[in-house]
Amino acid sequence: MNRNMQKMLRDAKALQDKLDKKLKEFESEEFQFDYKNTIKIRILGSCQILKIEIDKQLIDPDDKSMLEEMVVEAINEAYTAINNEKEEITNQYMPNIPNF
Q1: DSSP 58
Q2: Among 55, 43, 50, 26, residue whose Cα is nearest residue 79
Q3: pTM for this model (two decimals)
Q4: How many CA atoms lie within 13 A of 63 on its CB side?
Q5: pLDDT tens for residues 42-70?
């Protein structure tokens, strides 16, 4: 193997190691999301939910399904935001190679 190829492989390995470290740090990072000022979610970058707080005004025993739908929407928004941030981190370290 020629030296250029060896260097390229070492550089690629170093980049992969940096990416792995950043992603590991990201997974343990805590995020907070506020859904319409009514539902607050604390969640790790690994998407593990730590806490959900629901505004008392949303709690209506006669309309349980509305609350359930809002909680699902809030969680989905939190997951989407976390995945977008994770993708940004990955894109910082991975070259833009077509079909890869």
Answers
A1: G
A2: 43
A3: 0.78
A4: 8
A5: 999 999 999 999 999 999 989 999 999 99
Residue at 12: amino acid letter: A
Measure the CA–CA gap between 15 and 48, rounded to whole angstroms.
27
Per-residue pLDDT tens digits for 6-50: 888 888 888 889 999 999 999 999 999 999 999 999 999 999 999
Closest residue by Cα to residue 71 from 62, 81, 83, 59: 59
**3 state DSSP class of 50:** strand
Q: Token pair of 44, please? A: 């790790």
CA angle 46, 50, 55 (to 5 degrees): 130
Q: Where are the alpha helices (DSSP H) in 1-100?
A: 3-28, 64-93
34: nearest Cα among 25, 42, 26:
42
Q: Distance (Å, rounded) from C-alpha 49 to C-alpha 75?
A: 9
